[in-house]
Amino acid sequence: MPVNNMSIGKDVSVVIITSTGSLNIPAAAITNFGVQPVTEQESRIGMDGVTRPLVVPTAWKGSFDVDRMNSSVEDWWASVEAAYFAGQNINSGTITETISNPDGSISQYRYTGVMFDLQDLGNREPTKVIKQKLSFVASRRMKA
């Protein structure tokens, strides 16, 4: 549902697949999804005196803010931690991002080689929502 021909956060949905399967976070629980490219930058100055900048795409990083509506984040992290201490391999996952564009078209992007990192399980205060944070790094982002 765009507003004044601009995309808003409600236009975006995500599906998070970890190494152990789908992470069952309700869409209503995700209050923020931020993504940034990771690049390597370098400048070279040739003998002609001209500076030639290089920007090389290397990866992606991002995070999710999640209002705790179920135990899926904690249960998933418990399984990651148990696998790690049992000497098991922890594989990467994927994120699929779907955006409803203002013109009615749909854009879809897939993040691959995603490694997730639990940043915060949130404060437990009597009258406040428990806010969790999950970050990630991804090898690639491709148009699906």
Q: How many domains in all?
A: 1
Count of DSSP strands? 8
What is the fold named in CATH at topology level? Pnp Oxidase, Chain A
What is the alpha-carbon Rg in Å?
Answer: 19 Å
What is the CATH architecture descriptor? Roll
User: What is the C-level CATH assignment?
Assistant: Mainly Beta
Strand content: over 45%
How would a crystallographer describe the biggest sheet? 8 strands, antiparallel
Helix content: under 10%
Number of helices: 1
Mean pLDDT: 95
Low-confidence stretches: none
Straight-line N-to-C gap: 21 Å
Structural class: mainly beta
Provide the succession of SSEs.
EEEEHEEEE
What does this protein look like?
This protein has 144 residues and is mainly beta. The chain has one domain (9-41, 50-143): Pnp Oxidase, Chain A, CATH 2.30.110. The chain has one helix at 72-85, and strands spanning 12-18, 21-22, 30-45, 51-67, 93-100, 106-120, 131-138, 140-143. Strands 1, 2, 3, 4, 5, 6, 7 and 8 form an 8-stranded antiparallel β-sheet that branches.
Layout of secondary structure:
Elements: E1 12-18, E2 21-22, E3 30-45, E4 51-67, H1 72-85, E5 93-100, E6 106-120, E7 131-138, E8 140-143
Antiparallel strand pairs: 1-2, 1-5, 3-4, 4-7, 5-6, 6-7, 6-8
Q: Gist?
A:
The protein has one helix at residues 72-85; strands at 12-18, 21-22, 30-45, 51-67, 93-100, 106-120, 131-138, 140-143. It is mainly beta and 144 residues long.
